[in-house]
Amino acid sequence: MEKELSKKISLFLAVLGTAILVIVFIHWSFTKSSITWYGWLAAFASASLAWVIYIKFVPKWMDFWGNADEYGDGKLNKETDVPRYTYIKIFSALTVFCVFTLLLIFFIRYTKGYAQTFSDSLAVWMETDARHYQDIAKEWYLSEGEWDRLVQLVFLPGYPLLIKAAVFIIHDYYKAGFIVSVLSYATSGCMLYKLMRLDFTHSEAMRAIKYLCIMPASFFFAGPMSESLFLLMSISCIYCIRTKKWVLGCFFGGYASFTRSLGITLIVPLIFELVNEICRNNTRLLKKSYIIKNSISVLLIPTGFAMYCVINYMVSGDFLKFMEYQSRHWSQNPGWFFNTASYQTELIVGNWGENYKIIAGLWAPNVLMIFSALVLMIFAVKKLRPGYTAWFIAYFIVAIGATWLLSAPRYLAGFAALPVAAAVVTCNKKADTVMTICCISLNIIYLYTFSVRWYVW
User: Fold this and answer.
1) pLDDT for residue 292
2) Dist CA 83 CA 204 (whole Å)
C-alpha cells in the first residue's frame, strides 16, 4: 500500500515539475524580445537535460523519505579502515596544489613576456574580485564615495572578516587572503574525505579529492577569493548534519550564506536530511524537542544572509541595496538557467571570428561548464544521496540563472557535490581515465586564459 502511494506521489511530482518547466519555457520563448534559432536550441537542450535530472530524481526522493532506513544513520562505520596519515596527506597535497597553481600562473605569464617576479605575478589576482575583498577587509563598506567602492556592497563579508582576523597574525592583507584561502581549501579536502566515507570506500573518497583538484576552474581555490572558504563551510555543514551535529552544522551553513549568497541553498539538503531522520525514527519515540531544535537550527542558514542584509541597511539605508548594485553595475538580475544557455550561445556565435579571446575565456567555458554539469548529474542521480541532487537543482537554478553570468565555471567549482558526483560515476577505470584527462585538459586551458587575462572572472 505504501509503495503504491509512493508511486502515485512520484507520478504527481513528476507531472507537476514537468508542467511547470514546460509552462515557464513556453512563456519565455514567446516573451523574449529577440532570439536566434541556435539560442533557442541551446535553451531547449539545457531545459531538457535539467528535466531528465528531475525525472530521475523524483523516485529517489520518495524512496529517501519512504524507505529512510536504507540510507543509513550517518555513523562513521566506514571510517574504521582509514589508512594512516590520510588527512595529513590530503591537507599537504591540497596545499601543494595551491602553491603549484600559483607557480604555474607565474610560469605562464613569464613565458608570455610578463617580466615579473613570482611575487609580482600574484598581482594578477587584483584584476579579479580579489581586490574588492581586499578593500572590504581594509576599509569595510562605504556609504559614500567612488562608485567602484560603493558597489562593493554586493560582496558578502564572511571572507573579508577572516582576512581581517588573519592580519592580526600575518600583518599583510594580501598575504592573509592567500593564507585563508589555502588553509580553507586544504581543510575542505579533509572534510570532503570524511563526508565521502559516510557512504563510500576509501578509493572512492580519494577519487572525489582528485576531482576537487582537477575540476575546471579549481585554480580559483588558490587565490585570495571566497571560493575556498565557501567550499569549506558548505562541506562542514553537510558533514555535521549527516553526523547529527545539527546546531554546529547549521552554524557552518549560516557562515556559508554570510560568505556567498548561494549558501542559502544549503537549506535544501538540510530539509531533506531532517525529513529523512524523522521518517527513519518512529516519531512517537523521537522527542519533539529534538525535532523542534533541529528545525529551528536550520534557520541559522538564512540568518547568515539576513545579517548581510542588515549590514546593507547600516551602510546604505536599504536592506536589499546589493540587488540594485548588482543590476546597475553588473547587469545581473534573477533569470532562468536556460535563458543563460541561450544568450551565452548567441554570444559565442556573435563573436565568432572576431574576438576569440572573449569566446575562449568567457562564453565558451560558461556554456561548456553548464552543459557538462547537467550531463554529469544525469549519470550521478541514481548513485547520489537524494539531498545532494536536490541541492544541485537549487544551486544550479540560482547560480546559472543570472541574467549576465560571467563566472559559471567558478561558481560550479565551488559546489561541493560536483566532485562527489564525478567520483561516483567513474567507478569504471576507463571512465575515470577519460574524465581525468578531460578535466585536466580543460583546467589547464582555462588556467592559461586566466593567466593571460582573457576575460576570465
Assistant:
1) 84
2) 14
pLDDT of residue 2: 65
27 has a pLDDT exceeding 50: yes
- Residue 128: left if φ>0, alpha if ψ -120 to 50, beta else—which one? beta
Dihedral-angle region of residue 225 (phi above 0 means left; psi in -120 to 50 means alpha; beta otherwise)? beta
Which of 262, 414, 401 has its CA nearest to residue 344? Answer: 401
Q: Where are the alpha helices (DSSP H) in 381-428?
A: 386-400, 408-413, 417-424
The three three-digit cell numbers of residue 440, written as one number: 585536466
* d(C-alpha 150, C-alpha 82), whole Å: 49
Q: Where are the alpha helices (DSSP H) in 266-416?
A: 267-280, 288-298, 300-316, 321-330, 337-350, 356-358, 364-380, 386-400, 408-413
The mean pLDDT value for 132-153 works out to 95
| Top-confidence residue, 1 or 231 | 231
Taking CA atoms, 301 is separated from 195, 223, 312, in Å, by: 20, 26, 18
* 56's grid cell: 530521475
d(CA 421, CA 388): 9
Model confidence, pTM = 0.95
pLDDT-based confidence at residue 167 (cuts at 50, 70, 90)? very high
**Cβ-based neighbour number of residue 372 at 10 Å:** 18
pLDDT at 119: 87
Tell me what the mean pLDDT of segment 43-54 comes to.
Answer: 98
